[in-house]
UniProtKB/TrEMBL annotation:
InterPro entries in UniProt: AK17A/B
Native source species: Tropilaelaps mercedesae
Positions in coiled-coil regions: 299-338
Annotated GO MF terms: kinase activity
Protein name: A-kinase anchor protein 17A-like
Length: 354
């Protein structure tokens, strides 16, 4: 699920594609390490990560920690990864965290250490080494060279068509919006959103809704963006390095920009190692999707035929039942007439006798 947070500090935001409300914002993270006293283990005192988080937030004030999560825990240390709104707060946080923390029931305090967290992101050496050592690839062909981004964790709602509204089950990411967003960096050759193929197959299944069943993982999606030139790919990697995605709804008429809402989401950017947008893979997926859709259509036809036969059988059964009921009513009327006639005859004989 996407890690989405509200954002009030837009001072360091960089435009990606303002027409669809997308910007980039530098990531600023810090590692906060607590050196636990040995007496805790000696006296079998438990450590509450939640209490530690609350205590760290208290020490950090007035600095706002956008997020705070446990990244490592052992008998000796507990390490938290904190995300800050901007780099200006980092130096102040490091100074404030040069202290000791003691929770209720602890015999001793725990020393705190804080430093800037190192961000992981592929380098030029990584992709050049990968494609140099990879076998069976032709650098003259798109998708078989360093030209494609593989991006994970993009929020669906941010990349949906602007004229589509409704709940999450009615939204789906748009190839057009994705293309428009990333062509702002360099010339894009093509894009792909794998989740759309799955949803197309889900739509064909009998009894499914418009976009199939939604799961929590369907709040975000993966995407592939292929640039036409190697220079464009490098430019995109440099632009996204150390950045998170910021969404600010685009202007609709008159709006006070100072009060507009904004949100950030951490995304994972890597170079494509699978050749997803190579011509061979595109043809293979096209054939696979066509085959899958053909199989699903055959299943639908069989289901429709079974349903039609079942309806005809039920209709015949209903007609037979109605016919039997009519026959019973006719027999009943005949019997009633005979009984009435018999009663009338007996009554007439009775009067004649007396």
């Amino acid at each position: 699920m996407a890690s989405i947070h509200s954002c009030t500090d837009l001072s360091d935001a960089v435009e990606l594609e303002p027409s669809v409300g997308l910007y980039l914002k530098p990531i600023c993270r810090a590692n906060i390490t607590l050196l636990l006293p040995a007496s805790l283990a000696k006296h079998c005192i438990s450590v509450s990560n939640w209490e530690l988080q609350e205590r760290i937030r208290e020490v950090a004030r007035p600095i706002c920690l956008v997020s705070l999560r446990v990244s490592k825990t052992t008998m000796d240390i507990v390490r938290f990864e904190a995300e800050l709104a901007n780099r200006q707060d980092l130096k102040q946080l490091i100074e404030r965290m040069d202290t000791a923390i003691k929770l209720q029931g602890w015999p001793e305090s725990a020393r705190v250490r804080c430093g800037e967290a190192k961000l992981t992101f592929p380098s030029r050496h990584d992709w050049e080494a990968f494609f140099r050592d990879a076998k069976g690839l032709d650098e003259m062909r798109p998708g078989e060279r360093p030209d494609t981004l593989h991006i994970k964790g993009l929020p669906i709602r941010w990349f949906a068509e602007p004229n589509v509204s409704g709940g999450n089950s009615e939204l789906q990411p748009s190839l057009t919006v994705l293309h428009r967003a990333f062509r702002a960096i360099a010339d894009v050759r093509c894009v792909d959103i794998p989740i759309l193929d799955r949803r197309d197959r889900e739509k064909l299944k009998p009894g499914s809704d418009s976009f199939g069943k939604m799961g929590s993982c369907d709040l975000v999606f993966d995407a592939y963006v292929q640039y036409r030139e190697y220079v464009g790919f490098v430019k995109a990697m440099d632009a996204l390095r150390g950045m998170k995605l910021l969404y600010r709804p685009p202007l609709r008429g008159e709006r006070n920009d100072t009060n507009s809402s904004a949100f950030t989401s951490s995304i994972i950017v890597d170079f494509d190692r699978s050749g997803h947008l190579s011509d061979a893979k595109i043809r293979a997926r096209s054939m696979q999707n066509a085959k899958a859709k053909k199989l699903l259509l055959n299943v639908i036809r069989k289901e429709q035929l079974k349903r039609k036969m079942r309806e005809e059988k039920e209709a015949l059964k209903k007609n037979k039942l109605e016919s039997d009921q009519r026959q019973v009513r006719r027999e009943a009327r005949k019997l009633c007439k005979k009984l009435i006639h018999l009663v009338a005859v007996r009554t007439e004989i009775f009067y004649i006798h007396y």
